[in-house]
Design brief:
Blueprint lengths: L16 H14 L4 E5 L4 H12 L13 H5 L10 E8 L8 H4 L6 E2 L8 H20 L4 E4 L7 H7 L4 E2 L5 E2 L7 E8 L18 H5 L5 E3 L2 E2 L5 H7 L15 E3 L3 H4 L26 H5 L3 H7 L9 H15 L4 H8 L7 H21 L1
Parallel strand pairs: 3-10
Antiparallel strand pairs: 1-2, 2-7, 4-7, 5-6, 8-9
Protein name: Epoxyqueuosine reductase
Organism: Candidatus Macondimonas diazotrophica
GO biological process, one term: tRNA queuosine(34) biosynthetic process
Length: 367
């Protein structure tokens, strides 16, 4: 839970700001963050780019992106009196090997690596609260509020300004030592701390992320059309997945990591030591048929505490049906799909019919 602390800040009489900033960074590392930086709120250029992105309709059904754009430009409106963002990075890469043992096996389902363990929102918010309380223990009450992907904040822009990386052509934040396998979080505070310097971009002429995208969602450098993005389609999109895009989704059932997997800077990404992000319930290489057999109670139970749970059982089955339709002919897959032909949800039935037709067409073509 995010909290607005006692706004009667002691910032006017706080200790040396430079020394305090140095201690905050040390405390952050002690609490499990790999990097901590401090940013001001100079966000007009980034907010202008967001406005242009919204005008292009690239946000699709994510209506929340078009709301509170003023707060994205002026985050101090979220925490009256705030002047700085303490930005943190927490690495999440759970396994070392390239996941081709999943992506190249159509009978398995691919879950984005960030979602294999526990919900990162809870993990980061708890640590951010601990960091904010440690600051209060040192200097007294201060006005603050913690965030992680939980409010209208331009997180990547603030993190870039705080020196945590640069925004790559795939629109993810990148760091030369850490790649992009990390989460971001912030503490908006009224403490006038010294700010860090942004890093230079190091994408150069590389376009690996643009070329690898299965659905062509990265329509140009730094331009992502979410309506084509597999992460959007499997997580944010509520209705039927466009038929023209389904064959390109392969066996990706929750999110997509292709643009990160191909990025040269991720060769340097370290494994996460955070136990909470370790794979749970064999989601790192699950069989599609097994997952498709889960009823709603099993789905809720197995995925309790997981970010995957947010899409609900209906969209879970929708995503799985697409992956099963993309698999080579398999009697077990066909039988599992047939068992869901009379599912109460039209969304599930429609994708099951499509998947069965694909299985039949593929089988006929192979004969």
């Amino acid at each position: 839970m995010t909290v607005l602390a006692n706004a009667s800040s002691s910032s006017s009489g706080m200790r040396d700001p430079v020394a305090l900033a140095r201690e905050i960074k040390r405390w952050g590392v002690e609490l499990g963050f790999q990097q901590v930086g401090i940013s001001a709120f100079d966000l007009d250029d980034d907010a202008d780019r967001l406005d242009a992105w919204l005008a292009d309709g690239f946000h699709g059904e994510m209506g929340y992106m078009a709301r509170n754009t003023g707060l994205r430009r002026h985050p101090e409106g979220l925490v009256p009196g705030s002047v700085r963002a303490i930005c943190v990075r927490m690495d999440y890469r759970p396994v070392a090997e390239y996941p081709d043992h999943v992506l190249n096996v159509p009978a398995l389902g691919y879950v984005a690596r960030y979602a294999l363990g526990r919900d990162y929102h809870k993990v980061l918010r708890k640590r951010l609260e601990q960091l904010a309380r440690r600051i209060a223990d040192a200097i007294g009450p201060h006005g603050y509020r913690v965030f992680t992907d939980s409010a209208p904040i331009l997180e990547k822009a603030l993190a870039r300004q705080a020196g945590l990386g640069w925004i790559g052509k795939h629109t993810n934040l990148l760091d030369r030592q850490a790649g992009s396998w990390f989460f971001l979080g912030e503490i908006l505070t009224d403490l006038p701390l010294p700010v860090d310097q942004p890093l230079d971009a190091h994408c150069g002429s590389c376009r690996a992320c643009i070329d690898i995208c299965p659905t062509g969602a990265i329509v140009g450098p730094y331009r992502l059309d979410a309506r084509r993005c597999i992460s959007y389609l499997t997580i944010e999109h509520h209705g039927p997945i466009p038929e023209s895009l389904r064959p390109f989704m392969g066996n990706r059932i929750y999110g997509c990591d292709d643009c990160q997997l191909v990025c040269p800077w991720n060769r340097y990404a370290a494994l996460s030591g955070e136990e909470a992000f370790a794979p749970r319930h064999a989601l790192d290489a699950p069989r599609l048929v097994d997952l498709f057999g889960w009823d709603e109670a099993t789905f809720e139970s197995r995925l309790a505490g997981s970010p995957v749970r947010r899409i609900g059982h209906i969209r879970w089955l929708r995503n799985l049906a697409v992956a099963m339709g993309n698999a080579p002919p398999d009697p077990a897959i066909a039988a599992a799909l047939a068992a869901r032909l009379d599912h109460p949800a039209e969304l599930v039935r429609e994708h099951v019919h499509w998947a069965l037709a694909r299985q039949q067409t593929t089988r006929q073509g192979a004969q």
